[in-house]
User: What shape does this take?
Amino acid sequence: MKKIKIGLVGVGSVAHWGHIPAYQNDPRAEITAICDINEERLKTTAEELNVKEVYTDFNEMMAKSDCDAISVATWNNSHKDATIAGLKAGKAVLCEKPMAMNAQEAEEMLKVSRETGSLLMIGFCSRFGDDAMRLKSFIEDGSLGDIYYVKAGYLRRRGNPKGWFADKARSGGGALIDIGVHALDRSWWLMGKPKPVSVMGFAWNNFGDYKTKGEVYSSDLLDEKSAFDTDDMAVALIRFEGDKALFLEASWAQNIKEGLGYQEVYGNKGGAKLYPLELYTDIDYNQVNIQVPTSQVILHNAEIKHFLDCVEKGEETIAPGEDGVTIMKILDAIYESSRTKKEVFIK
Ligand SMILES: NC(=O)c1ccc[n+]([C@@H]2O[C@H](COP(=O)([O-])OP(=O)(O)OC[C@H]3O[C@@H](n4cnc5c(N)ncnc54)[C@H](O)[C@@H]3O)[C@@H](O)[C@H]2O)c1
Assistant: This one.
């Protein structure tokens, strides 16, 4: 069987714990080319993977490499250009979250994907958990009725990843765009992707560097100088068509007892939460709580298996560029609402 040749653009942290093991785990894929601006990391990764094709410039990689598909796992400020270069070279692209620095960049990426017909999938890995997938199917088969309210949060007590993450010029934003994006995307997807109408948002930068010492999420980032000009916490209330609402919160730093992730959905026939998956409904006027057994899934393995299915069999992705654009529009609106102190309407 001819293998699907994979190029990796950005071979940092998530490439190492997420993308590389996932491609290695799937017999259909073979990593044939890698690119990174960090030459030392490029060299060690090439040795580790026994890859001969190495590049420091993704434009050169797209021009020369015969890889079929690429993962873009660079800092957020190069997602757009690396993705567009890949799409134009006829590669299928899996671009990490957040799709881009803002909605305008995301729309440019989507436009090129439509023009070229090349696949563009966004790395919304938190959709791929067995619990999230099962909850989605309960919602789709009507078991919970009409979902009108969702609450989700991804909160760290102290967990500022520093380096480029906390430098707006390279990240586009902080806790909201970094981890809030997972809670936002999973909520919106579970709700059936309703059209967003407006946002009331708050984003704060209260902690900066010094108070976050002791908890660092990316080991390679400590030497870098951070601007610390991003949010370290954000909250939003998002209104959707059909009178549906989402309450969202995200923090890298907050004076909370302990970090937590939560996902709750409320329908007129039943409610549910994740971690673990439980349903709340009533049967014959009795309130019942149902615990649903689920399997542990390595999210990037499931996400990349789906990406390879799309590349190999031409299947439609469940996380297309269109979804990335909507999520970026909501994120932009949260930041704008925080800045302007007003409700922001989304076109
Ligand atoms: N899905 C998830 O759960 C998840 C988790 C972590 C990170 N991410 C996303 O993955 C991306 C990378 O995050 P990370 O934690 O691996 O960061 P990282 O800093 O560890 O790795 C990024 C790598 O990209 C390289 N790079 C930067 N600009 C480049 C360019 N123009 N061309 C080539 N290489 C370039 C850097 O040198 C670095 O090696 C980010 O977009 C982040 O939001 C997603």
Q: What stands out?
A: The mean pLDDT is 95. The pocket of nicotinamide-adenine-dinucleotide is lined by residues 9-15, 35-38, 41, 58, 73-76, 78, 96-97, 123, 125, 164, 178, 218, 220 (CB under 6 Å). The first strand starts at residue 4 and ends at 9. The longest helix spans residues 321-340.
